[in-house]
Amino acid sequence: MRIAIISTFDVSGGAARAAYRLQKGLTLLGHDSAMLVKLKVSNDVNVSEVRSRTKESLAEEQIISLMQEKWINQDRAPVSNTMFSLSYPGHDLSRSESIKNSDVLNLHWIAGISP
């Protein structure tokens, strides 16, 4: 079975680590498993970064991070520990060969990615 696991990160954060462990386990079981992430931290060859690293895209990422921190994270109500992500434009993965050739798409915390 061909599986694409999509996550914002590969090993940074709980959802990312869970997705990464899933990808490793599926590979050990003999499945063709690939992981597509917005920001790659590991040096695993089965993990691909989908975002572009242009000067403009990095500046946009910084602005979005500031907006997330200032207007969303700091204004959370004390009665809830629910996390919210800013609804900003993502990355189009529809042309990715990993997506086109997959039998299963598994999504984990996909803020900033649109499959």
Textual characterization of the structure:
The chain is of the alpha/beta class and 115 residues long. It has 2 domains: 1-51 and 91-115, Rossmann fold (3-Layer(aba) Sandwich); 52-86, no CATH class. 32% of the residues lie in helices and 21% in strands. It has 3 helices and 4 strands; from the N terminus they run βαββααβ. A 4-stranded parallel beta sheet has the order 3-2-1-4, covered by helices on one side. Helix 1 links the parallel strand 1 (2-9) and strand 2. It is globular, with a radius of gyration of 15 Å.
Short structural summary:
With 115 residues, this protein is an alpha/beta fold. The protein has helices spanning 14-28, 55-72, 97-100; strands spanning 2-9, 32-39, 47-49, 104-108.
How would you spell out the order of helices and strands?
A: EHEEHHE
Q: Work out the oligomeric state of the chains in this entry.
A: single chain
Low-pLDDT segments, ≥5 res: none
Fraction of residues in β-strands = 15-25%
Sheet with the most strands, sense and barrel status: 4 strands, parallel
Q: CATH H level of the largest domain: which superfamily?
A: Glycogen Phosphorylase B
CATH architecture of the largest domain: 3-Layer(aba) Sandwich
Rg over CA atoms, rounded to whole Å, is 15 Å
Report the average pLDDT across residues. Answer: 82
CATH class of the largest domain: Alpha Beta
Order of strands, widest sheet:
3-2-1-4
User: Which fold name fills CATH's third level, the topology of the largest domain?
Assistant: Rossmann fold
Our count of helices gives 3
**Distance, first to last CA:** 19 Å
Helical coverage, percent range: 25-40%
The beta-strand count equals: 4
The class by helix and strand makeup works out as alpha/beta
Shape call: globular
